[in-house]
Amino acid sequence: MQKIIKYFTNLTWNISSAKFVIIITLANMLIYHIPLYSFAVDNLDIFSINGVQTFLTMLVVMFMFTSIILIILFNISSYLIKPFCIISAILSSIALYFVDTYQIILDKTMMGNVFNTDMAEATDLFHFKILSYILIFGIIPSLLILKIKIQNTKRLKLSFYGLIIIVISLGWIYLFANTWLWFDKNSKILGGKMMPWSYIVNSIANGANYLSKSKQQTLLPDGKFADDEKMLVVLIIGETARAHNFSLYGYKRQTNPKLSKTNITVLKNSTSCSTYTTKSIACMLSHNNDSSLTTLYENLPSYLQRQGADTIWRTKNWGEPELKVQTYQRNNTLEKQCKQQKQSGCDYDEVLLTGLKNRILSSKKQKIFVVLHTKGSHGPSYNTQYPPEFEKYIPVCKSVELSKCSNEELINAYDNTIFYTDYFINKTINKLKDLNNIPSMLIYASDHGESLGEYGLYLHGTPYSIAPDYQTKIPFMIWLSTKFKNKKNIKSIVQKKSHSHQNIFHTIIGAYEMQTKIYQPKLDILKPIK
Question: Residue 310's closest CA among 277, 350, 356?
Fold first, then answer.
């Protein structure tokens, strides 16, 4: 063993810059792209002439892209190349684990998820298997790179090699132009699986998007409330709940036993505007629901607060936009109070209800807006999102490697989260019923859905244009107190053809009877269709 260690310690390879580029490019293509190749094989008639041409064209594009970037780095400074390759190897090993395990696509959407993930959620995703990926695909290649001694090739000569690679590659791509349609159709998936450029390019794109929105918010035009009577609106933001597993939406299991006995209105054909939390919440709280706009507008809670409402935001989650509200409380603050009062559910979503009734009654404002941002059904540790007594369906998946669980275990664990969500919403409604002197409305909408192994996908964050319905079809419900119905003269809510996050802002503005230029009655769910 000592001889082997000594041999490896003294081992070096003298390689020219040009050869280093070729070796690293080929090694990168061989080590980190099995998921990409698997996708290509599954989506091509690989044994046909066109299938072979398309697959080879993909390899040519990958080779050209990687080698040219390495040549550019060499020409900037030869001191950059090794650190870049080593860092890329480590990051690619981590990325490969998540792509392999959850079949995710590292596009701009997913990188936005990565940068907005808090420590608790990151811990939920951790499995010791990731260490083997880092060792085999990260550390070992990095050690081998360190043993290479690079003999610099003249910049002009190296650039000439790059030009040859570009000419030959473009010639091949042009020759087999019949493959372009397949690449265009699958560009998001291919780009999201190409290492390391998927996470590098899309991290830059996400950062640019963040910087464009970091400027000061544009205030919405002022409005005024039609009256000075008390009014309460509660918005519950669900997490990763998909309509498919709600019995209120026709699911075979009774996952909504409590809500099924209430007069809550279930809005049909409801969709999210995104497959990840940050964009969905921004969309829910936006008057125009277009988070791609370069202008950053004031969000609903901040707007209502500025117009004189008492806005309360309580969260056990993350991903909210910048808020300017009267009260902002995270679960860790509420947990202390919850445990001091020896209440139940202090480690779960119920903690958001701690002292809420007293907080509402103590408000000196006539218009009160409460947002409860829940942890809901967030995966992959579904079995940790509900108290033990809500484990109705067994056996359950207890691993973050969801593909290792049976379909029954996975669905059972997820359905238990929905079972608990049903309890939480109903408990919130009961607290509002106790406020019988205050006209109250409750809205529940999930931020997005979830994939549970369908089509080989897990979790969420798939690009919206190719995301399955499981990630975009959401539960969306409204409950109105008797006093609210009487005040607004509402006998029942008339269903529209479809509903989405787009309706939330204007429905809440309409509930307060707020007179403002930004209000769009056609998007107000409580307004009957004319």
Answer: 356
